């Protein structure tokens, strides 16, 4: 999860997020190179009294500074489009979960099971246990098996919400009357935190998302216990 003074993204916990991190570094290096070149040109133009006639009127240099930005845009656009299509790929999900946004909590329904669903509320500050995070912990976590494709169907009961977990590279709007879908694969066990990312009213800041990725055997044990309690 994020921590104070952090400048970059959270550590990736899914293949898509790893791709996004690589693309971010790729685009950032291009931005650094362009910024350095522009800064050098500005300093050179300001600090010298000489005038280069080839810069003032040169067809060749105009061709270069027209073609070069186009090439740079292609170098950014191609990997960007590749990741965009990767994020939309949903191949044979092992588990489907429906996440419904409410004012101001989330409810989860495991559609592959007959009666497995629960509401997920934020734990108030005064009820937190030692080591738990304020405004991020919930009374029921969304438990998923690791290294398995998970499909999440996202909708809302009342107003616009957005189901987002940065570590997993997932963000999907929850729109009343519309069913959106996204997918992820948790590449390692862990607890991953997110929050509603669409301003949805007075308690928008108080409907966190907690995804817990566990080995398949532990997930089966957890689902059995939840079905027994239901």
Automatic annotation (TrEMBL):
Cofactor(s) this protein cannot do without: Cu cation
Gene3D superfamilies tied to this protein: 1.10.287.90, Cupredoxins - blue copper proteins
Ranges of residues in domain Cytochrome oxidase subunit II transmembrane region profile: 1-91
Keyword Disulfide bond found: no
Manner of cofactor binding, per the entry note: Binds a copper A center.
Bilayer disposition of the protein: Multi-pass membrane protein
Residue ranges of the TM segments: 27-51, 63-85
Single biological process term from Gene Ontology: ATP synthesis coupled electron transport
CDD domains associated with the record: CcO_II_C (cd13912)
Molecular function GO terms recorded: copper ion binding; cytochrome-c oxidase activity; oxidoreductase activity
Catalytic activity as recorded in UniProt: 4 Fe(II)-[cytochrome c] + O2 + 8 H(+)(in) = 4 Fe(III)-[cytochrome c] + 2 H2O + 4 H(+)(out)
A Gene Ontology term for the protein's cellular component: mitochondrial inner membrane
Entry annotated with the keyword Membrane: yes
Main subcellular localisation: mitochondrion
Protein's cellular compartments: Mitochondrion inner membrane
Similarity comment: family membership: Belongs to the cytochrome c oxidase subunit 2 family.
Chain's role: Component of the cytochrome c oxidase, the last enzyme in the mitochondrial electron transport chain which drives oxidative phosphorylation. The respiratory chain contains 3 multisubunit complexes succinate dehydrogenase (complex II, CII), ubiquinol-cytochrome c oxidoreductase (cytochrome b-c1 complex, complex III, CIII) and cytochrome c oxidase (complex IV, CIV), that cooperate to transfer electrons derived from NADH and succinate to molecular oxygen, creating an electrochemical gradient over the inner membrane that drives transmembrane transport and the ATP synthase.
Full protein name: Cytochrome c oxidase subunit 2
